[in-house]
Each structure stands twice: as structure tokens, then as C-alpha cells.
């Protein structure tokens, strides 16, 4: 939707007010908000009941429904509702665990897609209709469509409120719920019908092929962040909501489809959450066959590398300041900065690379120390967070500077680059500081273990990086020379 | 079939009268049960006194789970009489706590243990949870009764520290204790535990049996436990129900689990072997008559 109005500004509220002047944008935001709310809640149960494949299949049968509706000339959403609800009813009648029968569902799914293809080929306006059903067309929602979405969503929310408790219980412990006399068929049918309705309205914005991103992924992210059911539901709603809002926001300025931005945001969030989980597991793995000597040696190399990185960083920062002083008018314009600080960048980029390497070495060192004491697992984890931070800082800086430079040529990608670059940069700096903190804690603990005062000092001085790391290097040398630790800690459990 | 020689065993009253009085918690009289139109077992007569700890053992598919499903009112006997806690079995009896064999919880279940136990209290309520209670400031959303009940149940099975943990991170033994708390939360008079010891090693099995035995003694709750292996619990049992080959034998473990009585029951040679630590192995008597899922 690029062009046409005032360009993107830093003031997001002005931007929103501007885009809400258009009816289609208002409709899209209203429908999208309701759909994100409903999809977040129902999605939690999809994840809990392992029904993600069933939700995918319902979307596909919905495709043939929508195509049939287009063929006979009614709104696609009614065809979607009829077909998905009929399929949901069939699944529920087949049995409690029908939603897990991959082969049956897959067979029906393929047939439904084929049927949809047939209906569309019978209809003349083939391509655009198919495209909007498969991938969603949120900017095409009519005011009547918004009303329909709103009321349908409200009904879904009311029913969820009514069956929340028994549905949650039967999702967790089906046999006990059955023995307690809960109507399993009714609950299962109710859940699948809710899923069918939610999918039918969600298809309007995300399409049948991308339905996973709103129905399943937000809840999958949520359950990894919290162990509480109610909190998980709220987090799932928030994830879906931010994705829809940010997607619409970006889509307004970019010529690319909104569905892509929604799916992309959800994907990045998911990867970050899973990555954090993997990092945590890596840091807490105990079985590293290494001696303490090896750990201290790795830490010594790490602090030397860190000192080099800090030196490069300081020089780079000096050059940057100098270039800004020479061109005072460029001080507050990043695009000006981009033109005037190539030397600084030539120092800062290697600083980031060597810094990342030092974080890696620190991580390896703490992991090796963790073989003999659990005290070093948390410094290892924090250092890993720091590595992520440095990567994000570099990426964010690149996007920001690159985006600002491109703004001059009014290239449409620039606002996105800045929009993603700034949060990435800020979060990256925060995580890097956390990583440094982890190194300080780790250094302190090594110092305690070897009763090495220069290491304890270094831990404190890590706040003054360059000096701190030089002292740390000297401290590790002495710790290595000393050999055995002063106190033997109990072996990890 | 040596039907005659079996008579003394079937419908045998408890050999040593226990101190437990009152009507039997479970009474079965010439019970016959079919599963998909095949007789699983028949002519079973036995009773279980209130507060007894009973093991239900037998080979796979002998009809142990079917017995539980009948007690829960989910499966009907094809003939004979079955009474549970003084009444005909009915579905949704709040006086029975049940731990099924099959669970949907796995490593990907990210939910607090506490929540599962709370949901089971009483497990039949609709709505979003909690209930509105009138206070002087008007109706207030209250979850305290539920929270207290869950806390008590977890404490009774020695799993208080598991409450905030995620179900997906628990070990097999910890998970079984949480299930036990889930079954206990409504203060039932009877516990039906289906294979709680499968997938546990010997040490964990003995620990769990100890927890269950403590519950039986402190709460006086009648407990039936299905198991493959009777050895972890043999010292604390009041009674054993042995189901195999379409027949059901009941009595004290020392009376039922002997070569003579089992051989007499099945009409084929069955040997009960004991090692130096009184562990029991039953050899023979498990022919092909079992059916999966029964």
C-alpha cells in the first residue's frame, strides 16, 4: 500500500491515525483484533490437545467450502463455515481421538483441496479468488464482514468461557474426565466446532494455507513461556495480536502482502523462543569431559580476546566521535553519519566479530568449569545470551544504518528496516550487557575457587571492560600456575 | 476345566477376618463380563472390605482394566451382580478416585502440576473456573477452596514441592504421584489405580507403593491396584485378585499365590516360585486367551 499519503514517521500514533482514515484499514484492524483474540484462546487448546494437524485439515476443507460459495455467488466465509463445521462434526463422531488420526485426516484433506480446485475451475474469476482464499486478503474485508466476524467471535468466546474448565481437564486427562461422567462426545464436538468457526473467520486475513501461523504458533510460543494455563492463553492472544497489528502496520507502507508480514513476525518470535530453550539446555548440560585446567585456559584466552575486542571498540568509538565533531550538522542524522564514519565502522565491525568470539570462548570455558561445579552453568547461559546480544546488535545496527541510507532514495523497504532495526539494536545491547554480567559473575566464581584476588578484582572491573579483561587475563595465568583449587567443591548431582 | 476343585477358592470369604466392618466396598456375585461379545471372565464372586489394599494382577488382556471400567460404570457386566460402595456402579461416582493407565500428558505438556490437581476438584464443573462467593463487598471470584484441596492432596502423596513444576518435566514416579493426588483431591472412599507401577524401576515402584500404603492406612481408603508384578507391594497387601484365563481368584496373597491353588484353578500346571527374599514368580497358566485392550 505504498504511496498516497504522508510517508511513515517516527510517531506511530500519527501513523495509526492516518491509516485509520481509510475504511478498509479500520475494517482490517477491527476484524484482525477479534480474530487474534479468538485464535489465541482456541489455539491454546489446539496445542494442548495436539490437534494442530486437525486444524490444518479443517482449513483445507474450508477451502473447498469457500470455492463452492464463490461458485454459487455467496460470501466465501459462509461456505467456509458450512464445510468446516460439517468436517468438525464428522471428526467428532468418528471418535474422541479422531483429531489425531493423521492418515484419515490427510486423505480427506487432499480430497477437499481437489474439490476446491474443481469448484474454482468451474468459476470464471479463477486466479484472484483462489489467491485470496489460500493466502488471505485482510485489506478486502467489508464492513459487513467485520460485523459478522465480531459477532461470531463473541459467540466463540462465550462458549469457550462456558466449557473452559471441562475442556481443559479432558484435554489433559481424558479417561478420568470420562470416568467422572463428563460428556466427552459433547466436549470434543464443541471443541472441533469452535475450531471450525475460528478457522473460518481467520481464513479471511491469513488464508487456509497460512492458518497455522495464527491458530497454532502463538499458543506454541505461549506454552514455552509460562506453565500457567490462564497466562498462556493471555500470552497467546498477545502474540497473535501483535503479529496482526504489526503486520497490518507494515503492510500499509509496503507493497508486499500483509499475510507474509504476519506469518514472518510469528515465525521470528517462535524461532527466538525455541532458540532460547536450546541455549538454556546447552548451558545446563553437565556432561562435558573437561578438566578445570582446560576451563581456566579457555577463560584466559577468552579474556585476552575480549581485551582485543574492547580495544578495537574503543578506537572505533573514538573515530566515530571525531567524525561527528568534524561534521556537527551530521550528528543527529544517521544518514549523515553513514557517509562520514567509514573508518570508525572499519574498527567497530571487527570489534563485534572478535567480541563475539570472546563470548564464545568464555562460554566454552564456563561449560568446562561446569563439569566440576554447577556454579558455572548460569554464567555459561548468560554468556550464551550475550552472544545472541552481539549478533542482534550487529544485525540491528546494519539494518538501521542501511535503512536510513536507503530512505534518502525512498526505497520502500527502508521503514521496515528501521522498524526492525531499532528494537533489534536495543534488545541486542541489553542482551550483550547481560552477557557481560554473566562473565563478571563467572570470573568472580573462578576467583573464589582459586582464591585469586586479581580475578575477583577483574570481575568487578568487567564493568570497565578493557582494564577488567587485562586483569582477568593476568588472574587466569596465576590461577593456572597455582593448579589445584583452594576448595574442592562437591561433584554436581 | 477342573471346575469343581475351584469352588473353594471362588467366592472365598477373607481367610482371616479383618478388623474392617460394615458392608463390603465391592461385592461381586457370579459376575460375567464380555468385551466385544467375547467372554473375558465369568463366574467371579468376591468381595473387598472397606479400607483394604488389594492388588489386581494377571497377564496382559486378562480383563483387569475391564474390571475397573465396570466399577466406574463405564462397562456393564453381562450377568451377575456387582455392587460398589453399597450401590450399583454408576458413571461419575464422586466417591471413587481413578488413575487410568493411559495418559495424554507427555514431555510437551507445559502446565503446572497444581493445575491438573485443581481441575480434578471436582472435575465436573463448567465455566471458566472458580466460583463467585458472596462477601460483604458483593460477589467475589474465589479459587481458595480449590487451591487448598489441591495443596492438601499433593501434600498427602508427598509431592508438595512438585506443585509449581511443569507436568512435562516430571519423572515417571513423580508423575504417578501427581496422578494419585489428582485422584485423591475429592476425598474419595475408593481408589482405582491402573498400572501405576509400569515404567517404574524397582526402587521407584517400592516408593510409590509406600505412599499408597500410607494413604490406605491414614485415610482408610479402599484401594485396588492393577499391576503386572506383585512383588513391590506383597508385604502390605490385604488381598489379591488374580485374573487369568477367564477366571478370577481372590484371597490373601499367601493363600492364592501357591502352586496348588493356581493349578487347581486353571487345570493346567502352574508353578509359583519364591526366591530367598520372598519375591514371587508365577510360571505357566498364561495361555493365549488374553485379548488386548480388555
Please tell me about this protein's structure.
The complex is a heterodimer of chains A (493) and B (294). Chain A folds into two domains: 12-271, ABC transporter involved in vitamin B12 uptake, BtuC (Orthogonal Bundle); 285-482, no CATH class. Chain A is 80% helix and 0% strand. Chain A has helices at residues 12-19, 23-48, 52-72, 76-94, 102-122, 126-135, 143-172, 174-179, 184-206, 212-215, 217-225, 229-253, 258-284, 292-326, 334-340, 342-370, 377-407, 414-450, 453-461, 465-482. Chain A is globular. Chain B folds into two domains: 1-95 and 189-206 and 222-294, Rossmann fold (3-Layer(aba) Sandwich), CATH 3.40.50; 105-187, no CATH class. Chain B has helices at residues 3-6, 64-71, 113-119, 144-156, 172-184, 202-219, 253-256, 259-266, and strands spanning 26-35, 38-48, 53-57, 79-84, 96-99, 131-135, 138-142, 190-194, 222-227, 239-244, 247-251, 271-274, 280-283. A six-stranded mixed sheet of chain B has the order 5-8-9-3-10-11, sandwiched between helices. Chain B has a three-stranded antiparallel sheet with strand order 2-1-4, covered by helices on one side. A two-stranded antiparallel sheet of chain B has the order 6-7. In chain B, a hairpin with a 2-residue loop joins β6 and β7 (138-142). In chain B, α4 (144-156) crosses α5. Chain A binds chain B through residues 48-50, 161-166, 168-169, 171-182, 223-224, 226-229, 232, and chain B through 72, 74, 91-92, 94, 96, 98-100, 102-105, 108-112, 115-116, 119-120, 122-129, 164-167, 182-183.
